[in-house]
Amino acid sequence: MAGHSKWANIKRQKAVVDAKRGKTFTQLSRAIILAARNGVPDPSGNFQLRTAIEKAKAAGIPNDNIERAIAKGAGTFSGDNHSLEEIRYEGYGPCGVAILIEALTDNRNRTAADLRVAFSKNGGNLGETGCVSWMFDQKGVCIVQGVVDEDQLLEASLEGGAESYEMTEEETAEVVTEVANLEILNQTLKDKGFQVTDAELRWIPSNNVEVTDSDQARSLLKLIDTLESLDDVQNVTSNFDMSEQLLSVSVV
């Protein structure tokens, strides 16, 4: 299993009892704002907005907050003078691991400064635009839980236009498709009786860097954790590969 996939699973599990609840609320609220801005402010006609709202409700965000975020994205919320900008940053971590950061910010100078400090304090460096993005392809990913029959999952995935799938944990799979096909795949899997717990856009690396040194592994994971803790950061993606044993030791 690629280390970045396992790390994503660990982060999802931690998020359930994450003490940084405010950070989660900020991320999810901003995702709603962005989705409403990029499409119609009606979840029935905007798949990105619909999934963002589902995640927000699952995290316990009140309906009033969700409606306020939609209004901000639609530009109908009075008194909102902050304009969020979607920016992608790129850099390198320990061992030359490539890192992509997706951010939503109302002050790109502040965000860049915060990222630069995070990289420099954890053995990495913030790079120029395009320095690592060529190593990644953006895909749509459905997280499916309760998979007991892989043949049925394969059949449903193919019918939904999936490119591939991977069992990441016991009875849990990640099904991958083209970005434009994510909504169709999501609905097909649900129609076939599968429990889709998340449908998201993700940057997937075309090649991985194997990390075997425990000190470098610890520095790398600390860097990623630090980046993810920043208020303006929405997602962090990397191309490291690490054994589960080393990953577990380094996370502790």
TrEMBL record:
Name a GO CC annotation attached to this entry.
Answer: cytosol
Q: Which InterPro entries match?
A: Integrase-like_N (IPR017856), TACO1_YebC-like_2nd/3rd_dom (IPR048300), TACO1_YebC_N (IPR049083), Transcrip_reg_TACO1-like (IPR002876), Transcrip_reg_TACO1-like_dom3 (IPR026564), YebC-like (IPR029072)
* One example GO MF annotation: DNA binding
Keyword NAD present in the record's keywords: the answer is no
The UniProt record lists the TACO1/YebC-like second and third domain at 84-240
Q: Which residues form the TACO1/YebC-like N-terminal domain?
A: 5-75
Q: Which domain of life is it from?
A: Bacteria
Q: Where in the cell is it found?
A: Cytoplasm
List UniProt keywords, sorted A-Z. Cytoplasm, DNA-binding, Transcription, Transcription regulation
- Any one Gene Ontology BP term: regulation of DNA-templated transcription
The Swiss-Prot or TrEMBL record describes its family as follows:
Belongs to the TACO1 family.
Please identify the protein, giving its name as recorded: Probable transcriptional regulatory protein NCWK1_4843
Organism this protein belongs to: Nostoc cycadae WK-1
